[in-house]
Design a protein that fits this description.
Elements lengths: L3 E4 L2 E4 L4 E7 L8 E7 L5 E8 L5 E3 L7 E6 L4 E6 L8 E8 L12 E2 L3 E6 L1
Parallel strand pairs: 2-11
Antiparallel strand pairs: 1-3, 3-8, 4-5, 4-9, 5-6, 7-8, 9-10, 9-11
């Protein structure tokens, strides 16, 4: 089966950086897009960033687009999220997502999910 596994979370001081990774360690599938979502305590499950697998086009939530960078490695079936200038409000569980079908809205409708990695930003 498809298995998305996140890594790279941890504790960082405000203004610092982290890089998250997400790789498919299971069966091969035709990736159309991969992305990142996050959920803070008591908050909704929100879109963070996504990348198209075909041409590398990127998409960001307004709250992160000046600070976060998403990228992909097609050969490794891996996506990365470089997070700079982290703020306490970035604290959340970050979930990797993937899609195996074409869809024009990159903020939603993913069919594979990782189990999440905790990011904590101290003030």
């Amino acid at each position: 089966q498809v298995r998305l596994v996140e890594s790279g979370g941890g504790l960082v001081q405000a203004g610092g950086s982290l890089r998250l990774s997400c790789a498919n360690s299971g069966r091969t599938f035709s990736i159309y897009a991969m992305g990142w979502f996050r959920q803070a305590p008591g908050k909704e499950h929100d879109f963070v960033a996504a990348v198209s697998w075909s041409d590398g086009s990127t998409y960001y939530a307004d709250s992160v687009k000046s600070r976060f960078t998403i990228s992909r490695d097609n050969a490794k079936s891996t996506t990365y999220l470089q997070m700079n200038s982290l703020k306490p409000e970035d604290t959340a569980v970050y979930y990797c997502a993937a899609r195996n079908f074409r869809y024009n809205n990159y903020t939603q409708n993913y069919n594979y999910w990782g189990q999440g990695t905790q990011v904590t930003v101290s003030s």
